[in-house]
Write a structure and sequence with these properties.
The protein is of the alpha/beta class and about 400 residues long. Among the domains are: about 5-170, Rossmann fold, CATH 3.40.50; about 310-385, ANL, C-terminal domain (GMP Synthetase, Chain A, domain 3), CATH 3.30.300. It is about 25% helix and about 30% strand. It has eleven helices and 24 strands. The protein has helices spanning about 10-20, 35-45, 60-65, 85-90, 120, 145-155, 170-180, 190-195, 215-225, 320-325, 360-375; strands at about 5, 10, 25, 30, 50-55, 75, 100-105, 110-115, 135-140, 160-165, 185, 205-210, 230-240, 240-245, 250-255, 260-265, 270, 285-295, 300-305, 310, 315, 330-340, 345-355, 380-385. An eight-stranded mixed sheet has the order 2-1-10-9-11-12-13-14. The protein starts with a strand and ends in a 15-residue tail after the last strand.
């Protein structure tokens, strides 16, 4: 089996049949169903054609600005895929000049193009017999770099991709148990929303990989309780650079071979442009926009994205710090801290709480915890109980 979601299942034979019946393909991959996204990435790759992968979150005007001069169609070269082994062989061809152009908002909010080649996309992919029978739970947007990492990990091992990102009518942990999922990749936000405080244990998952946001030791330990036989990985990656660092906890160690290409300046992580597959910025050192805490000459902890900080009365507040504290209470399943305009302060903090108990019964206890743990300007002015926490299509919290 190649692909499973709530609506369709595709075996490798069916995937190969679809590949062999396509005679003309879109150079701009802009599909709403994930299987079509994967199908046309493979078509582009084995036909050695450069392609644009479009995120549906982008505005139409933003898409048109970047791809306005792109020739939209190409003819396939009638390369017949014989079977699964032949497909993997074609994808593994090191002579391919295939390029995949991703669109990212970057740190400025304005979409920009990031170009990856075949080598940068599969650089950290692990291929081994032990992965051939793996069933990988995909909890990322397929048009984002993290989603592509899962896709290539599955494809190059002839494994199974199970789409957990768009489930509407199925409980995530129930489906994982039913299908015996062996590996899961997700953002910390996705974990908190769908798995945190779960009373159901899972014994089939062997690895849990977090990425895309800050992970903390409390969440990592809770993941180990829910998935007791799994190894938990914390991944630092970006659309621009791909995977850079990995850890089993919240501390990242810089590998020796890239130590000279990592710089922390004014608390912000900078990466040398030579580590980018394509450097369109023209800068020698690229500002990642990530605040980090230096622990030694070769290790650090991720604090927050520069863009996440909220200015409250002249103080920069990290909402992740407040959310971590609130979620340490067992009856708070998830929460989101956002700014709200205020005529006196300029901005104040609002905490939305997803709770297993009534807020009115716990408000005094929550406020006491906040007062005892945080400076005054970090304490939310309003605690609001909600039925759900809203997320962007990337599975992250939107604080706008």
């Amino acid at each position: 089996m190649f692909y499973i979601d709530e609506e369709i299942e595709k075996t490798y034979d069916e995937l190969i049949d679809d590949l062999n019946h396509i005679t003309e393909a879109d150079r701009i991959i802009d599909y709403k169903d994930d299987y079509s996204v994967y199908l046309f990435i493979i078509i582009s790759l084995i036909n050695n054609e450069s392609t644009f992968l479009i995120d549906n979150d982008l505005l139409l005007s933003e898409k048109e600005e970047i791809v306005s001069n792109v020739k939209t169609r190409f003819l396939t070269n009638k390369k017949i895929v014989k079977d699964k082994s032949h497909l993997i062989e074609l994808v593994n061809d090191t002579n391919l000049q295939f390029e995949l152009n991703l669109l990212t908002s970057g740190t400025t909010g304005k979409p920009k193009r990031i170009t990856h080649n075949r080598n940068s996309l599969i650089r950290t992919t692990k291929v081994s017999k032990r992965y051939h029978s793996s069933k990988w739970g995909q909890c990322y947007n397929p048009t984002h770099f993290a989603g592509l990492q899962v896709f290539f990990q599955v494809l190059l091992n002839g494994a199974t991709l199970i789409n957990l990102f768009k489930l509407k009518n199925t409980n995530h942990i129930d489906l994982i148990n039913k299908l015996n999922v062996t590996n899961i990749s997700m953002t910390p936000t996705f974990f908190r929303h769908y798995f945190q405080n779960s009373k159901v244990k899972n014994l089939s998952v062997r690895t849990v990989s977090f990425g895309g946001e800050k992970s903390n030791i409390h969440m990592i330990e809770e993941a180990k309780e829910i998935f007791p036989v799994a190894k938990v990985n914390n991944i630092y990656a970006s659309t621009e650079f791909g995977v850079l660092f990995s850890s089993n906890d919240e501390v990242f160690t810089v590998p020796k071979d890239i130590k000279s290409k990592v710089l922390i300046k004014n608390g912000i992580l900078h990466i040398h442009s030579t580590l980018m597959p394509s450097n369109n910025s023209g800068e020698e050192w690229v500002n990642t926009g990530d605040f980090v805490e230096i622990l030694s000459d070769s290790s650090f902890k991720f604090i927050a994205r520069n863009s996440e900080f909220i200015n409250i009365g002249g103080y920069n507040v990290d909402p992740n710090e407040i959310e971590e504290l609130l979620c340490s209470l067992e009856y708070i399943k998830d929460c989101k801290v956002t700014p709200r305009n205020n005529s006196v302060m300029g901005k104040v903090l609002i905490a939305e709480l997803l709770m297993s108990e009534d807020l009115t019964l716990k408000k005094k206890e929550i406020k006491k915890l906040l007062r005892n743990s945080l400076q005054e300007w970090k304490i939310p002015s309003l605690l609001k109980q909600v039925d759900q926490i809203k997320y962007s299509r990337t599975g992250k919290k939107s604080r706008g």
